[in-house]
Fold this sequence. Notes:
This protein is of the alpha/beta class.
Amino acid sequence: MAEVKRPISEGEALDAVLDELQREQEVREIAGWDTGFANLNGALDGVFPGLYLLIGPPGCGKTSFARQLLDQVVMRNDAVGVFISFVESKKELRIKTLARLSGIENKEIRRGSAYLLHWYGVPRLGGAEAEQLSPSWERVRRAAENARSWLDSIFLLECGEDTTAETLAAQLREIRGTTSKRRTIIAIDDSQRLGAADQSLEARLPLAGEQLQSLAKTLNAALFAVWPDLRENGEVVSRTWAERALAADVVMILQEDPEQTQKLMGPAQAMNIHIVKNRGGDRGKLLFDFQPAFSRFAEATSR
């Protein structure tokens, strides 16, 4: 028969609670998981288990941002990461990571993708054939090898029209069973596809949000759901999105600043992330520079 524990009052537990918080404060400047973005860490106080909604118009870099964020959380926090895609193939997602890490453009890696054998791998060539590899491919190889330790903790899932929140949950539990890591981050690209196809995007969001929030809670995971914004005016209406996404813990809107983009050097885009809902911290605007050719986001200090 299980032993019945004596109820403990908050006052009695206070010393142990303070000791635990003090130990955590000594080693961490943020309470949650490190995102690799200092300003985003400050606004969110790090990442926690829960539902994060990333909203933006088509072509603004949502997929690249979600993939980079997942990679950085896994790399910096001894976590397991799962990127779920309804549109982009595993190959394209891998090229995004390799381009960001190596500094070699997506299109160049894609042209030479026949060399990419087995995972993020290293070309399995020998003799004179190996000597023909260009210096840029050597950079890709080194970047892949340097990332192998944390890439071992990342899984990619390609989904189809028949994928539901229930089938995703089963796949995610299976992945979780392969690792002893306690922290899990999940990114779902085009998450609107989990809703009913005969409904408008606006009508899908409340129910899909509840399903995603339940999934995050069940798995005790940080779940970043990418959602499209197809409105023509493109204005950020904080209250509107916060009210639509009642189940989300955090709502972030990714949007280009065309005026500031014109001031940037090279083929980069000035991007803003508007945090319009945040149950655990601040709301406001964060500045980023996005290089589409390298699928890379970097925080900007000022405009």
